[in-house]
Design a protein that fits this description.
The strands form 3 sheets. Strands 1-11-10-4-7 form a 5-stranded mixed beta sheet, with no helix packed on it. It is mainly β. Helix content is 0%, strand content 56%.
Length: 149
């Protein structure tokens, strides 16, 4: 669904780190595929990608669209989650993947634009492919959220 519209977060703070999710992978073909890499195509000024990871939604209580990287607000700490990006992620034919990709981003200053374009690299059999999906994560500076202790 993320590839069908914008995801937004209006409480970013300079110096803080966040997780930005890429769309879930779906394989509509009759043959398994292996995703080898996924990333945002455009990273706006004011955000810096620290790393990309692939995590299992079953181990993180679902897929994260955008969340603080420090685990506040009830979100899981994805740094403690197993990183499946070290190997190709298999997506079976005619199904979706439980593994999803996230980018750890740091706010370095005023944000000028959105994280846009989700680029996936994959292989099917011996053929290598790339696919660009339209996606957008709008991050803006704003008052910090308050969390209960």
């Amino acid at each position: 669904m993320q590839s069908a519209g914008d995801v937004g977060y209006e409480h970013a703070q300079v110096g803080e780190e966040y997780w930005a999710g890429l769309p879930l992978a779906w394989n509509t073909s009759a043959t398994d595929v292996e995703i080898t890499k996924a990333e945002f195509s455009q990273v706006p000024k004011g955000l810096k990608v620290i790393e990309y990871r692939a995590v299992n939604g079953n181990e993180t209580d679902g897929n994260i669209l955008f969340a603080r990287a420090d685990g506040k607000g009830g979100m899981p700490d994805l740094l403690k989650a197993k990183n499946y990006a070290e190997r190709p992620v298999k997506v079976k034919a005619k199904s979706g993947s439980d593994i999803y990709y996230v980018a750890r981003v740091k706010v370095t200053g005023p944000i000028e634009g959105a994280l846009k374009g989700c680029h996936f690299w994959y292989r099917q059999g011996s053929q290598q492919y790339q696919q660009q999906l339209e996606c957008s994560t709008i991050v803006s500076l704003g008052p910090p959220l308050k969390y209960e202790k």
